[in-house]
Amino acid sequence: MRRVPRIALAGAATASLALALSACGGTSTSGSSESKGDKGLAIAYDVGGKGDQSFNDAAFAGLKKAQSEFGYKTADLEPTDGETDADKTQRLVSLAKQGYNPVIGIGYAYAPAVKEAAAKYPDTTFGIVDDSTIEAKNVADLVFSEQEASYLAGVAAAKATKTNTVGFVGGVDIPLIHKFQAGFEQGVKDTAPKVKVLSQYLTQTADEGGFSSPDKGKTAAEGQIEKKADVVYAAAGLSGQGVIEAASANKVWAIGVDSDQYKQEALGKYKGAILTSATKDVAKAVYNLAKSVEDGKPETGIVRGDLKSGEVGLADSNPQYKSNTAVQDAVKAAEQKIISGEIKVKSS
Q1: Across the strands, what pairs with 312?
Q2: What is the spatial distance between Cα 102 and Cα 138, in angstroms, rounded to a whole number?
């Protein structure tokens, strides 16, 4: 049970909530026990929103688990085109004001907003995924060692390639995505030094659509495939769907990211081309923060998921990947060396 009971807000207050939330991005709310008046976890999506089959959808899965287990009302808000930090702040503040706890910004772009909202509502626990810069008593920085999962993706790519050329497509040229690139390239080179890695970024800023443009991802992947890449790894959010589509059309391998994209319904017609996915358990991080609040012991500070904790890794849903002994042996050996510290994976 929640240690701090919340009083239901009704009538005009509920109407005000709807107006406030519609002003700062689309929302959906649900709960199994409206009579409890108990508001819990709320999330605000990153660029691409719900339905990206990747990062944001993983966060939503965590929200759904918390909602089911704790029986409270949740909320999830969509971003808007061209929004400012002030818009993001308004979104988080509106959630905290209505009694949601915790409130989580999904993506590093929420850093300024989380910092400001957390200062205004010190009794609310805030979380932010993929940022470790906020130091506050009521903020949990939910971060991952993406480079470790990417290293394993590089190992798998190096073992699977027949052309000795593989590709990396990053959504936006920022330090977070550099971690994916660095780990992938290191994994390839440590496994097969003669394999060439083609790496490129779709945009310099998120505002240019690097994380939300499947057409850009498709064009980039097609360019790499023309240069003989037969395994292409995308760390590009929604844009990665275009990379997977291009791989499928050209009968080469794609490696997904964040979620197990082989299982994503929207990518079903392309799943035969998805060798594996470098996953990070955003769902678990979101759920764990919600549970910590529910238990009365909120997580704060840097909370990191890595290979050792099982919160990053490679998905093995594709039977062709799972049954490939050479790939499996190489990946498992690399995983053990990373966990033991024998392999130090670069993050840039």
Answers
A1: 280
A2: 10
Residues 6+ apart with CB under 8 A from 228: 163, 165
Using CA atoms, how far residue 99 sits from 8, 123, 202, in Å, is: 9, 10, 39
CA 290/CA 66 separation, integer angstroms: 7
pTM over 0.90: no
Which whole number is the average pLDDT over 186-206? 97
pLDDT in tens, 10-31: 333 333 333 333 334 455 554 4
Give dist(CA 2, CA 332) in Å, integer.
41
107-133 CB burial, b ≥16 within 10 A, e <16:
bbbbbbbbbbbbeebeebbbbbbbbee
**How many whole angstroms separate alpha carbon 235 and alpha carbon 217?**
10
Specify the long-range contacts of residues 213-220, CB closer than 8 Å, at least 24 apart.
213/238, 213/239, 213/242, 214/238, 214/239, 214/240, 214/241, 214/242, 214/245, 215/242, 216/242, 217/169, 217/171, 217/241, 217/242, 217/243, 217/246, 218/242, 218/243, 218/245, 218/246, 220/169
Distance of CA 339 to the CA centre of its chain: 22
Which structure tokens are listed for 3? 């240690």
Report how far residue 238's alpha carbon sits from residue 54's, in angstroms, rounded to the nearest whole number: 7
What confidence tens digit (pLDDT) does each residue in 296-314 have? 999 999 999 999 999 999 9
CB neighbours of residue 64 within 10 Å = 17
Take residue 185 and report the two structure tokens written for it.
């390239």
